[in-house]
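Model it.
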Amino acid sequence: MSNSQMKDIYRLIKKNDIITLYGHINPDCDCYASSLALREIIRDNFKNKKVYALGFGTEKLYDLLTKYDEVSDDVIKQSLAIECDCSEIDRVSEQRIRLAKQIAKIDHHIESKPFIGVKWVDTNAIACAQMIAEFAFHYKLKISKLAANLLYLGICTDSGRFRYAPTNAKTHQIVAKLYDLGINPKPMFDILYQSDENFVKYQALLVSKFERTKHNVIYCFADVNDYTQFNLTYDQISKNVNVIGNIRGCPIWVLFTRSPEGQIRVEFRSNGPCVQLVAKKYGGGGHEHAAGARLENQKDFELCKKIVADLDKLAEGKFE
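Modeled.
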């Protein structure tokens, strides 16, 4: 952790009366939880400030936890904007962030290009939510039960329920403090880890379709008909890479999912090699062992086959 970077963020929050918070496109639970938890923490500790979290997605958690805000362009223009769990402004879901008078960043991803502005980046944190929790505990800020549940949600999901690196002692110490604040994970798990019948059938299709390269890279191409036949949408099914993951002897797995409009979401995972290197080559980014990319205007999977070839070189130790 960079104490000076965290301090810079704290100073900006204290200085600004209007703050807007943002996350990335197709938010995962850490993205959703980070911005919403930070909103709650700032609101509870700085009563004179107007704080809004803007974004789209993760609707299934709205009734249990909370939802994003709606504000006008004029509000954003007067605000300090903070992007949470997002390495680049181009990947922010609410592009009105560009209207803000100042933009800062709190993130735990490796930067594919330098962020110009005040930032706090800690690639040793398993989740952005862990950083937000650390921030609140460091400055002895009040954390409501809602904020605590959100922080736990982000940490638990981004760590793969505490299985992925860099989950460490600090992660568990923070979670222990969240339990002391009265978190109740079960209702969140009931929503997150239940699937309807069609979704399970789609996942079974992925398992039946995956292939393996010479150097044991697992890959799968999911086209539009693969999920529409089960009455599922692209937004519902484009985060399924771990369905084909953690196969013994296979260090890398990757899922390519094509939307009806021709965008292909690429999800890279690894239990050793740095897949972020390949993701970066194709305009993506992320962590060493968990990364992603988006390919626009793709009529087929020909470019994806080149990515698979690069991943095979990576598994062989010959990717440059």
